[in-house]
Q: What sequence folds into this?
C-alpha cells in the first residue's frame, strides 16, 4: 500500500489534517519538527498522530484534560517546536507572492492596545481618553477620524502623533519572520504587507523602513486597500492570526503559513503568579528569545533564561537602584564573574573587590553589593544587599542559584556532573536575558524593574532542589 | 550504455564534462535526485538537458517518494534488523520505480551513493565508479559524513552500515580532481578528472555549449576597482546551520580581505536563503545556477581575488586569479578568531613589518590569508604570532623584533612569569552599528618588543577602521602594561584556568563514559 502512496497525495492529506484551527496547525507541525525523519519514513504512524491531534483540539473536553506544560520544569522549545526558518521558507518559496499582516509576525508589539492608550492618556493628561479611544478603535477607520470624534466628545484638541510615537516605541522586529520575508524577496517573490490598522500609510511605511522591513506592496485597511488575489494557488499567507487573517484567505485557495507569536507560545506554559505588569513584558521578551526559531536552545539554557536570569538581573537592578545615590558602589565578587557582567551594565562605575579587600577600602557612604551572601559584617554607615534578601528567601533556598553564579569557583556545588557545559549554557542565558531586557527598556523607555517576589517565584519554578 | 547518478549541480556538470570527454557518442542515461531543482523548474530543466543532447535519457529519482516507504527513522542505536529492513524497503522502492536491469549498463558513475540508487548497488553487490561529492571532497571524508549525518540520519546510518560515501568494496574507481584535494591525500582508487583541465585541454570546443546550457552565461565584468569573486555556500553544508552566523562570517571575510574591491557574488546553487543584494549593496550578483567551475571560462575581465569562507570550489579558481583566500571550516565554528588575526595583521602592517613573519599555535591557513592580504611575507626573525589556541607559557620572545600573543583558545594567552617590562597591550574594540550581526566585543593582544622605535609606535597606535559590510567600527589601540592592567590580566587568567579545569574534568568524565559504553557494546556483540 505504501508503494502506491504518492508524495502529492501525502501532501494533500497533511494539508487537510493541519488546517482545522490554529492549535491543530501548530501542534501537527510540532510533531513533524520533533522527528522529521519519522514523519516522512513512517507516514501511516505520522498520520495517526495527526489524527489524534485533530480529535483532541476539536474536542474542548479532551483539550482541557491535556497535561499542562510547566515553565521551568518542562523543556518548552522541545514541546513547541518551530521549524527552522529555511524549512518554512522552502514551502513559502513554492509561491509567487506572500501576503502578511506584519504586526504580530514580522513586528511584535510589546504592549496591548489598551496599555498604549493609557500611556497616551498619562502623557496628554486628558482624562477619559484611554476608555474612549479603546471604544472607538477600528481598523477600518482612519486615525484622523477617530481623533476627530475624541476631540469632539472630550472637548480637546489632540492629534494622533503622541499615540503614533508611543506605538513605535513598543514595536520590535521579529528576526525569524523578517528573515523569512528577506528570503522570499531575494527569491523573486512579491511580498505584500496587508495591515489591518487605522494608522496612516506614511507612518507605517516609515516604521517598517526603520525596522529594516521592505515589502513590495503596502496596503492599509483603513485606506480601503485590500490585496487582490488572482493567483491563489501560488499565494501564501503568513500571519499569527489563524482565524481572522489566514482563514479568509484559505477560503480563496491560498496557502496558509501560520506563525504563532512567541508570547502566545510561552503563555501556553503554566507560569507562576508574577503579576500582569511583569507577565506582559516577560512573555514578549522571553518568548522572542526562546521561540525565536533561528536557534534551538538547550534545556539548560532555557531554564536558566526563564527562571534564573530574572533573579540575577532583578537583583542587579535592585542593587543598582539602591547604590545610585551613594558615593561608591562596591561589588564583592570577581570582576569576570557572571554577576559582575550584569551589574556592570547597570552600574558602570561599580568597583569589584573580594570580602577581604573590601575591608581596606571602607569609606563613608559606600554601598556593598554582596551577591553571594559572603560577608557577615558591614560598617554601620555603609549600605549592603544580597540576593537572598532581595528574593526574600533563606540562603539555603538560594544555594543552587549561588552555585551557578559562583561558577568555576564554587566551593560547594549543587550542580550536575556536566558542570562546565551547564555553567556555560547558563552564563550565556543570563547574558542574553540582560541584553534583551536592557534593549527593550532602552527602546521603549520603559524603566521596569523586576521585584524580588516575582523573581523568587520564577527562580523557584526552575530550581531543581525545590522541584524535587 | 553508461549511467550517471547525481544530486548536485556540481556533480551534474562533472558528469556532463566526463561524458563528453570519454563517452561522447555512447548512449547514456542520467539519474538526478529530484532535489536538484525546485519542483516548478523540473520539467523545463529535464527538457533542456534532452534538447542539448548530453544524455539519451534523463529521469528524476523520486527520493521523497522512497522516503515514505522506508518504514522507520533510524538512529545510531538502531538494531541491525531495523537497518536491514530499511535497506530492503529502499531497494524495493528503487527497483520498482527504475524498472530496468542495472547490470545491463556498461558503466555506472555514481555520486551521492547514500541515496536509494547507491544503497541498491551496494546491497546487490553491483560494481560502480564513485564520483566525489564536490571538488576536493574526497579528501574531506569526515566533513562529508558530518553533512550527510546532519541532513538525514537514516541515510547516514544506512551508509555507514553499507560503506557508502565511497567506502565499500563495490567501488572500482573514485573520480576526483586530484589537484584540489587536501595536502597529503592519497587513495589507491583515486582517478584524476578535473573539469577545468578537461574544458581547457581535452574538450575546449565543448565549452561554449556547456556555458550555453548553464544559462548562456558570459559575464563581462569590469570595474575601476579590483574585482573580488566571492563564492558562497549551501547552509546545509555548514557546521552550524545559522543564517545570521553565515551572514556575519561572509561580511567579515569580505571586510577583512577585500574591503575596497568590487564584489562579484557567486551564490552556491542551493544558497537560496541569503539576500546578497541586501548584504552587498553595490555588488554584481551572478546566477546561482551556474557552477563556479565554469566561471574561469565565463567571466571576461581580470579577477584579482577569489574569496570564500570554506567552500571547496575555490580550489577550482586558483589558476584564474591572483589571490585566493579560503578560511577552512574553523571559520564556521570560531568566526571571532578572525577578529584577533585581523588586529594582529593590522598591527604588523602599522609597525612596517613586511617580511620575516612566523606563526605558531594558530590556524596557519587563516593567518596566512591576513598576512598575504597585507603584503607581509612569511619567514622568521622579524615577527612571531602565537595564536594561543593551546596554552603555552614558553613563548620565545627573544628571537624576533616583535612577538604578538593572541588569545584564540579558552585561556588568556598570558603568563605572570613573562617579562612585563617590555610588554604592551593592544586592544581591538568592535562597536557594531544598529542591526549589525557582530556583537560588541574586545580582543586583547599581548605584544613583546624590545626595539625602542617599535615600542614607541605601539604606544602611539590608534587605528580606526570601518567594516562596511559588517556594519561595525573597530578601533585598535596600544599601551604599555601598567600595574592595574597586569592585575586584571592575572584575575582573568585565574578565571580562565578555573574554567579550563572544569572543562577538562567534564571531558574526562565523557571519555570515561564513552569507553565504558563501547566496552559494554563490544561485550554484547561477543555474546551474540
A:
Amino acid at each position: 500500500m505504501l508503494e502506491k502512496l504518492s508524495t502529492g497525495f501525502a501532501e494533500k492529506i497533511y494539508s487537510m489534517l493541519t488546517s482545522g484551527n490554529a492549535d491543530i496547525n501548530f501542534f501537527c507541525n510540532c510533531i513533524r519538527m520533533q522527528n522529521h525523519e519519522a514523519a516522512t519514513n513512517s507516514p501511516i504512524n505520522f498520520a495517526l498522530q495527526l489524527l489524534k491531534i485533530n480529535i483532541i483540539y476539536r474536542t474542548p473536553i479532551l483539550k482541557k484534560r491535556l497535561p499542562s506544560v510547566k515553565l521551568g520544569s518542562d523543556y518548552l522549545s522541545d514541546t513547541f517546536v518551530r521549524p527552522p526558518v529555511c524549512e518554512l521558507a522552502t514551502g513559502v518559496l513554492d509561491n509567487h507572492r506572500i501576503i502578511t499582516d506584519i504586526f504580530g509576525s514580522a513586528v511584535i508589539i510589546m504592549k496591548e492596545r489598551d496599555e498604549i492608550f493609557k500611556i497616551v492618556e498619562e502623557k496628554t493628561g486628558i482624562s477619559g481618553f484611554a476608555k474612549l479611544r479603546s471604544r472607538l478603535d477600528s481598523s477600518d477607520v482612519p486615525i484622523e477620524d477617530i481623533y476627530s470624534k475624541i476631540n469632539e466628545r472630550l472637548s480637546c484638541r489632540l492629534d494622533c502623533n503622541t499615540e503614533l510615537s508611543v506605538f513605535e516605541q513598543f514595536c520590535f522586529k521579529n528576526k525569524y519572520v523578517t528573515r523569512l520575508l528577506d528570503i522570499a524577496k531575494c527569491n523573486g517573490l512579491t511580498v505584500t504587507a496587508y495591515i489591518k490598522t487605522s494608522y496612516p500609510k506614511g507612518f507605517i511605511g516609515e516604521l517598517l523602513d526603520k525596522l529594516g522591513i521592505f515589502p513590495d506592496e503596502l496596503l492599509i485597511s483603513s485606506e480601503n486597500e485590500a490585496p487582490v488575489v488572482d493567483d491563489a494557488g501560488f499565494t501564501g499567507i503568513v500571519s499569527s492570526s489563524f482565524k481572522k487573517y489566514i482563514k479568509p484567505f484559505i477560503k480563496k485557495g491560498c496557502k496558509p503559513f501560520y506563525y504563532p507569536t512567541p508570547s502566545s507560545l510561552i503563555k501556553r506554559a503554566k507560569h507562576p503568579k508574577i503579576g500582569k505588569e511583569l507577565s506582559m513584558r516577560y512573555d514578549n521578551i522571553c518568548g522572542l528569545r526562546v521561540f525565536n526559531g533561528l536557534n534551538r536552545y538547550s534545556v539548560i539554557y532555557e531554564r536558566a533564561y526563564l527562571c534564573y536570569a530574572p533573579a540575577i538581573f532583578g537583583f542587579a537592578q535592585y542593587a543598582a537602584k539602591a547604590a545610585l545615590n551613594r558615593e561608591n558602589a562596591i561589588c564583592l565578587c570577581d570582576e569576570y564573574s557572571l554577576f559582575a557582567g550584569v551589574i556592570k551594565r547597570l552600574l558602570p562605575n561599580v568597583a569589584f573587590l573580594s570580602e577581604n579587600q573590601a575591608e581596606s577600602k571602607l569609606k563613608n557612604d559606600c554601598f556593598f553589593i554582596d551577591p553571594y551572601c559572603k560577608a557577615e559584617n558591614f560598617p554601620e554607615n555603609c549600605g549592603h544587599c544580597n540576593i537572598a534578601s532581595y528574593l526574600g528567601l533563606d540562603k539555603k533556598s538560594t544555594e543552587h542559584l549561588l552555585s551557578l553564579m559562583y561558577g568555576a569557583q564554587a566551593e560547594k556545588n549543587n550542580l550536575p556532573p556536566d558542570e562546565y557545559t551547564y555553567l556555560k549554557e547558563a552564563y550565556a542565558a543570563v547574558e542574553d536575558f540582560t541584553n534583551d531586557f536592557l534593549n527593550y527598556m532602552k527602546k521603549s523607555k520603559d524603566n521596569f524593574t523586576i521585584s524580588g517576589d516575582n523573581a523568587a517565584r520564577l527562580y523557584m519554578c526552575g530550581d531543581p532542589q525545590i522541584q524535587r | 550504455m553508461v549511467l550517471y547518478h547525481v544530486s548536485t549541480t556540481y556533480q551534474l556538470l562533472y558528469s556532463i564534462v566526463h561524458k563528453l570527454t570519454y563517452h561522447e557518442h555512447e548512449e547514456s542515461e542520467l539519474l538526478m535526485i529530484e532535489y536538484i531543482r525546485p519542483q516548478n523548474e523540473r520539467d523545463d530543466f529535464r527538457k533542456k538537458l534532452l534538447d542539448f543532447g548530453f544524455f539519451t535519457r534523463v529521469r528524476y529519482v523520486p527520493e521523497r517518494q522512497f522516503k515514505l516507504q522506508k518504514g522507520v527513522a533510524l538512529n545510531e542505536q538502531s538494531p541491525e534488523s531495523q537497518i536491514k529492513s530499511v535497506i530492503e524497503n529502499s531497494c524495493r522502492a528503487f527497483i520498482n520505480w527504475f524498472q530496468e536491469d542495472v547490470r545491463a549498463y556498461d558503466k555506472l558513475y555514481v555520486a551521492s551513493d547514500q541515496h536509494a540508487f547507491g544503497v541498491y548497488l551496494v546491497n546487490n553487490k553491483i560494481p560502480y565508479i564513485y564520483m566525489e561529492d564536490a571538488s576536493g571532497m574526497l579528501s574531506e571524508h569526515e566533513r562529508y559524513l558530518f553533512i550527510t549525518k546532519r541532513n538525514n540520519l537514516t541515510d547516514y546510518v544506512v551508509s555507514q552500515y553499507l560503506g557508502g560515501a565511497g567506502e565499500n568494496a563495490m567501488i572500482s574507481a573514485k573520480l576526483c580532481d586530484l589537484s584540489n584535494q587536501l595536502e597529503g591525500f592519497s587513495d589507491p582508487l583515486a582517478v584524476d578528472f578535473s573539469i577545468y583541465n578537461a574544458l581547457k585541454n581535452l574538450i575546449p570546443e565543448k565549452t561554449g555549449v556547456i556555458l550555453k546550457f548553464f544559462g548562456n552565461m558570459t559575464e563581462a565584468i569590469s570595474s575601476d576597482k579590483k574585482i573580488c569573486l566571492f563564492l558562497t555556500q549551501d547552509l546545509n553544508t555548514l557546521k552550524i546551520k545559522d543564517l545570521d552566523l553565515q551572514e556575519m562570517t561572509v561580511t567579515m571575510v569580505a571586510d577583512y580581505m577585500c574591503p575596497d574591491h568590487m564584489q562579484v557574488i557567486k551564490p552556491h546553487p542551493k544558497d537560496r536563503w541569503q539576500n546578497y543584494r541586501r548584504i552587498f549593496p553595490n555588488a554584481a550578483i551572478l546566477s546561482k545556477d551556474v557552477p563556479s567551475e565554469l566561471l574561469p571560462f565565463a567571466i571576461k575581465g581580470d579577477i584579482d581575488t577569489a574569496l570564500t569562507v570554506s567552500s571547496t570550489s575555490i580550489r577550482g579558481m586558483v589558476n584564474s586569479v591572483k589571490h585566493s583566500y579560503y578560511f577552512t571550516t574553523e571559520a564556521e565554528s570560531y568566526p571571532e578568531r578572525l577578529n584577533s588575526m585581523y588586529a594582529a595583521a593590522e598591527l604588523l602592517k602599522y609597525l612596517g613589518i613586511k617580511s620575516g613573519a612566523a606563526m605558531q599555535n594558530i590556524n596557519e591557513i587563516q593567518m596566512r590569508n591576513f598576512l598575504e592580504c597585507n603584503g607581509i611575507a612569511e619567514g622568521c626573525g622579524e615577527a612571531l604570532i602565537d595564536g594561543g589556541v593551546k596554552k603555552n607559557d614558553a613563548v620565545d620572545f627573544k628571537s624576533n623584533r616583535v612577538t604578538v600573543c593572541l588569545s584564540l583558545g579558552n585561556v588568556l594567552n598570558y603568563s605572570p612569569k613573562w617579562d612585563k617590562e617590555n610588554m604592551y597591550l593592544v586592544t581591538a574594540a568592535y562597536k557594531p552599528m544598529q542591526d549589525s550581526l557582530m556583537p560588541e566585543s574586545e580582543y586583547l593582544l599581548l605584544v613583546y618588543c624590545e626595539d625602542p622605535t617599535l615600542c614607541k609606535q605601539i604606544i602611539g597606535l590608534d587605528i580606526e577602521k570601518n567594516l562596511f559590510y559588517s556594519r561595525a567600527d573597530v578601533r585598535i589601540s596600544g599601551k604599555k602594561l601598567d600595574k592595574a592592567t597586569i592585575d586584571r590580566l592575572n584575575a582573568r587568567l585565574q578565571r580562565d584556568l578555573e574554567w579550563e579545569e572544569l572543562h577538562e574534568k567534564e571531558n574526562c568524565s565523557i571519555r570515561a563514559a564513552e569507553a565504558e559504553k563501547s566496552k559494554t557494546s563490544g561485550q554484547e556483540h561477543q555474546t551474540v
About this structure: The domain at 2-211 of chain B is CATH 3.40.50 (Rossmann fold). Chain B touches chain A through 47 residues (CB under 8 Å).
